[in-house]
Amino acid sequence: MKRQCLGLALFGITTLGFVGFASAQQVTGVLGSPSASTTIPGNQLPPPPPKFGGVITQDAKTSKPWWPPTVVPPKGAPNVLLIMTDDSGFGVPSTFGGVIPTPTLDRIAKNGLRYTQFHSTALCSPTRAALITGRNHHAVGFGQVSEFATGFPGYDSVIGTENATIGRILSDNGYATSWFGKNHNTPAFLYSAGGPFDQWPTGMGFQYFYGFMGGESDQWTPYLFRNTTPVFPWVGQKDYNLITDMADDAIRYMKELDAATPDKPFLVYYVPGATHSPHHPTKEWIDRVSAMKLFDQGWEKLREQIFANQKRLGVIPANTQLTPWPDSLPKWESLSAVQKKIVTRQADVFAAYTAYNDHEIGRVIQAVQDMGKLDNTLIIYINGDNGTSSEGSMMGTPNTMTVYNGVLELPELEYLRYYESWGSDATYPHMAVPWAWAFDTPFKWVKQVASHFGGTRQGMAISWPGHIDGVGGIRTQFHHVIDVVPTILEAAGIRAPDMVDGIKQKPIEGVSMAYTFKMANANAPSKRQTQYFEIFANRGIYKDGWYAATTPPEPPWLVGTKALPPVQDYKWELYNIAEDFSQANDLAAQRPDKLKELQAAFIAEANKNQVFPLDNSVLPRLLTPRPSGAAGRTTFTYRGVNAGIPVANAPALLNRDYTITAEITVPKEGAEGMIATMGGRFGGYGLYLQKGKPVFVYNLLNLKRTRFEGGVGGEDWLGRSLLPGKHTIVFDFKYDGPGLGKGGTGTLTVDGRVLSQQKMEHTIPFLMSIDESLDIGLDTRTPVDESYTLPFRFTGTVDKVTYTVKPEQLTAAHREEMRQALAVAHDTPAK
């Protein structure tokens, strides 16, 4: 007891007096010895340093050393494995009635509980920000994905220092914290080596990070980082895929942690890219799932099958209605035999990605069991960070970059060309919209639609051996991703801090779900009584069993290419979800009083959480200026090899005039290789020497490539290799603006003489690259065309590359009428 009191005095604390957490400081060992440890109150992070408890004289022989005790969590605090998949709706996994086998999620549900009224925000970054902070997404700056960030507090994509994450809280309380997979919560304008890194996982309290930056990544050649350093583990690997590599790295990390500090609890935040586009499972999984013939029946019959499964499993109430198939989507029988073949292949690949991902998650969980730690591990497995994605357009696409640039229709030949390779590294694919709607059964709508459960209802399972009554049961309380942090803190016996680094913290808005672990509370009323939703101005509000929602004026698969009404003119719907699980019966006309009450509740929550101003624009936000190393610059200069410059810090070449000037030295044996490139196989450009000859290729979203090189209407000598010595190669582009995605004239010159001049009918309007970087002197991920192989390192010397960019040729009228200006998006270039 004296030792405990001494520890309390040293840390300047007394006791902890809050319900559900450790009631007093716990000290082990002899204070001052190297093996002593202590818990902390947790109200202030980091805790004040303890006073030195030894003796210091002028002579070490008469002095007494003293070590500060190691901070540890309360005794019995569990390991935490927090898992969340991507872009997967309620009706996807077998655990919640889907036809796709997810045995790992089934296992967690069997050994724990299934939650059937758990919710996301309807979009990637916002859900993830809410999940790791316990606060609503607008309150922590993530009212949108970072790529669409705007200069308003609720939308700037910066998790402020007043919003400490679960990683930071647990880390300061003695946990080992790590993050594997998708990181969509670092502002897109802070991806560069220039930092700052406080908004990266390692700056937000996660001691180790292994994953990719941004909303999505090619899984064959991902935009991958270890902590803050880019890594390229696929180089030289024949069968590399990030889904497996990520599981391998998590298992390696946990084993090393166990060997070094076996008693130290861990938080592993495990968030793979599956099943966000691009859908990239291995061929073995595609073949395995295709043989099951899950989707030959078509999307309407699939929906009926999932609905029947859900009733059989009891994950929806017996009186649930299957919401009607919308008139805006084609019926299966309206498709030709070829179209059915194409879209069935897409669903097979999506299902293979789902099953493959669940299998690899199972390997991670099995590793925890093999280490003997499963009995004290809290596993939270959330299926999806939003509803299933409809961002693949009505017939799907072999290259999602086309949709991101407003190209919503492709020739049938384009699908057939990639039929066999769908899901491979030759594609960047997404499936057709109707599959997304079917995979959100029994609800209406899809990802991005925050107003309806098709966008926000996620299946979740939680297991924690010895702490959950009635394993295998179902819980129906209404909860939200902000409730995960308080649940973890209660399980660990750790309080939410009042101060972190001297900064007063915003209150955590979530409520713990731990009360549902007890059988006595299986049917208890939900402790979450109110929750608002908003994405792209689609709004929803839950309050005491009622739900009000705006009607989406246009579907998200049109990506804003159709004019939308003012946000204040949206129609509202009303549902009594205590009796109407699937939001099938709109009661707005019968209960205008209740609707008015909930609308007022939404305004109150919106004011409290930085939701205003509402903005329903989509693609136009991609062109919004944001802080970055490129902001305000018109000239960019690079010397020597310089790879991995992120999109936000690279020169913006869209919708404007620009000039690329490369000063190179060719050695006596000649030279070839990449001089400068942005993007790759699915859209971008490259300036390089091939067999000693200058070449510039513009890749219009893998639909058409324009190649500038010698011998095209030029003098004969211009088609020969460059002689040894110094040369200046220039590509100059004059844009046919103003407007979006217009064409222009490109001119390639060498040492002042015209090598090639050509007209391009169209250019990329919105987004040239997501997961590929600007590379100088080599090409790091995928080639801009197939005439060379990576890394295509330049064998001469890049003395200097200079980009000169002019202002965007978009008038105020163009910006105001941007949706109408997207007519080019429907004028698909021919091959």
TrEMBL record:
SUPFAM superfamilies: Alkaline phosphatase-like (SSF53649)
InterPro entries: Alkaline_phosphatase_core_sf, Sulfatase, Sulfatase_CS, Sulfatase_N
PROSITE patterns: SULFATASE_1
Keywords noted in UniProt: Calcium, Hydrolase, Metal-binding, Signal
Domain Sulfatase N-terminal: 78-494
Record carries keyword Signal: yes
Residue intervals passing through the bilayer: none
Signal peptide: 1-24
Family the entry assigns: Belongs to the sulfatase family.
Protein name stated in the entry: Arylsulfatase
Organism the protein comes from: Candidatus Accumulibacter contiguus
Lineage of origin: Bacteria, Pseudomonadati, Pseudomonadota, Betaproteobacteria, Candidatus Accumulibacter
